[in-house]
Amino acid sequence: MNYQSAIQSQEISSPITISLQSEFEQLTLDTSPKQDPLTNQHSGILDFIDEIDQEEKFKKHQSLSLQKELIRRNNKNKSNEGQSSPHSNQSLVDQKFKYIKELWLQESPIQEINKQILSQRVISINEEQYFKDLQNDNVIGMGVYHSNEASPLMYFEPDIETDIYISSLIDSLWGNQIISRKLQKLIESGTPEQQLLIVQKLERISPQIQKDVFGNYVVQKIFDSCGDIKLKTRMFNKLKTHFYDLSKNPFGCRVMQKLIEYSQGKEDIQNSILSQLVQNMRSLIYDSNGNYVIFKMLESYDKSKMEFLIPIVEESFHYMAQQIYGCKIIHKIIQQYPPNYIANLVKQSISNYSVLSQTEFGNYILQHILQFWIVSPEKTRLIQLVIQQFYQLSINKYASNTVERALEALSKPELITVLNWLLFRSQAQQQFSYVASNFVQLANHQFANYVIKKFLILIDQQMQQSILNFLIKNQQEYQALKSTLHGQRICSLLEKQVKC
Fold first, then answer.
1. CA–CA separation, 181 vs 347, rounded Å?
2. d(Cα 183, Cα 214) in Å, to the nearest integer?
3. How many CB atoms lie within 10 A of CB 58?
4. Which of 349, 353, 312, 318 is nearest to 334 (CA)?
5. pLDDT tens-digit profile of 77-113?
6. Cis peptide before 339 (omega within 30 of 0)
7. Contact by Cβ (8 Å): 219, 209
8. Domain limits, the chain
9. What percent of the chain has pLDDT over 70?
10. How far apart are CA 456 and CA 293, in angstroms?
11. Cα–Cα distance list, 97 to 47, 50, 91 (Å)
12. What gap in Å lies between CA 103 and CA 36, rounded to an integer?
């Protein structure tokens, strides 16, 4: 066997080869399980040199014909001496190390890659160089730097910290207002990659996070400020099957209202929301949180899409008339739809005027009927009912607003009738030393004084003069009127109106 054929046929790895391979992998920082080109090309040569060295040693020992005991004794006696191979072939050793040195100094492709890897520096996403590399397509994803010549296994991800940071924020979001504001800020002004990360991690905890006291604001911010339509669509689809559940939750209903705002002008999204909620609309009407969602739909959607709601509201009128948002829904329907659609609803409102007039939002229903409803027997009936309880309704905080609207709808003869009632004093009242007239009592009241102001503005100057003459004739009335702050303002307005 000649030297060249032995090199080509020998494939057994020696201990020296394994050691060199391990050291070389550590220097290149590449510990991945792959075959090293150095092993493939040159291991045969190194193994052959080692084999020749071992054969020379064996032949030398055989020629000496020493017994094993003597060999061990000689080794024991020389235990304090340096351990070496005195009989090894020095030329082969020199040849071996010379060859290894040549291999090490040789510019192989692996060593070129090693130099490139060691010369690369990890680029921070905050450095200006990052944006230059981004323009040259050297940066992929979230700050990951790639070299065109480097191994695909060798790349750096400095923004893994961003992923961990956002994950920690999402995990700490529950009931945390500060974390909620941080995430909202990232959605509003963060990078597209940061926005994508937030949406991905919110999807994993939906729809529970939408029901959180502060988590719902983060989801609202996605539909409000995020510029990526795909992310909005992605979150919308994630919540699609949970619309009804969210609508009944005190915090989830806020997300639903934001979704309804987002769907304005988007027919497909509106139809998707309606398809999920129409079958549960009666249940939402009897839920205080569901009322918010229904009212937002009435505000945002075309009225033709919400016609189906009118008969449902008529059925639930008595309950809704006692609820704040129930009254707002009734008012919104009466405000939006023509008379032929809401005639039954108006009749029910008039029948329950005593309840509606004394509630914060119910009085708006009656006010709207008195102000905008066509002249009809129903409207006339409502005016008569209000005037019949003029005093009781005028001293109520909310019903006084209804009385003001009723005064605006009165004709001049009807206003004169009201005036006579205000200034009238019965014989029983006159028997006592002094009992104030209805006019003075209402003018001095904290709520009813607004009704008297409206009345003084609506009547003509002749009627105003008759009131002033009555007060001058009855000085006790005049003094009683001026005894309170509200009465002083009424007196000042009356005198000003007469002089004009």
1. 48
2. 11
3. 10
4. 349
5. 444 444 444 444 566 666 656 666 565 555 445 455 4
6. no
7. yes
8. 3-65+90-119, 128-158, 159-280, 410-500
9. 67
10. 42
11. 13, 11, 10
12. 14
Amino acid present at 25: E
Q: What pTM does this model have?
A: 0.60
Contact between residue 357 and residue 363 where contact means Cβ atoms under 8 Å apart: yes
Measured from the Cβ of residue 382, the count of other Cβ atoms closer than 10 Å reads 25
Enumerate the H helices of 205-251 as residue ranges. Answer: 215-225, 229-239, 243-247
pLDDT at 51: 73
pLDDT of 257-292, one tens digit each?
A: 999 999 988 899 999 999 999 989 989 998 989 999
Q: What is the pLDDT of residue 22?
A: 53
Instruction: Residue count of the chain, please give it.
Output: 500
What pLDDT score does 464 carry? 92
**pLDDT for 364 beyond 50:** yes
Task: Indicate the pLDDT class of residue 49, thresholds 50, 70 and 90.
Answer: low
Q: Between the CA of residue 244 and those of 41, 252, 300, 437, 456, what are the distances in Å?
A: 69, 10, 18, 56, 51
Contacting residues for 282 by C-beta, under 8 A, at least 6 apart: 312, 315, 316
Asked if 39 contacts 23 with a C-beta cutoff of 8 angstroms, the reply is no
The pair of three-digit structure tokens given for residue 447, joined into one six-digit string: 């709520």
* pLDDT score of 79: 44
Q: Report the greatest alpha carbon distance in the chain.
A: 157
How far apart are the C-alpha atoms of 217 and 228, rounded to whole Å? 18
For residues 480-489, one letter each, b for 16 or more C-beta atoms within 10 angstroms of the residue's C-beta and e for the rest, the string is bbeebebbee
Q: How far is CA 68 from CA 17, 53, 58, 62, 75, in A?
A: 31, 21, 13, 11, 11
Half-sphere exposure of 362 (CA within 13 A, CB side): 22
- Structural Rg of the chain based on CA atoms: 47
Query: Residue 141: what are its φ and ψ, rounded to 5°?
Result: 70, -140
Report residue 463 as tokens: 């009627």
Q: Look at residue 14 in the predicted model and tell me its pLDDT.
A: 46
pLDDT tens digit sequence for 461-490: 999 999 999 999 988 888 999 999 999 999
Tokens of 122: 């990890």
Q: Name the helix (H) or strand (E) containing 48.
A: helix 37-64
Burial group, residue 397, by CB count within 10 angstroms (0-12, 13-18, 19+)? exposed
The residues facing 139 across adjacent strands are 145
How far are the Cα atoms of 77, 221, 224, 406, 465 from residue 212, in angstroms, in the given order?
84, 14, 18, 45, 63
Instruction: Give the β-pairing of 144-145 and 139-140.
Output: antiparallel
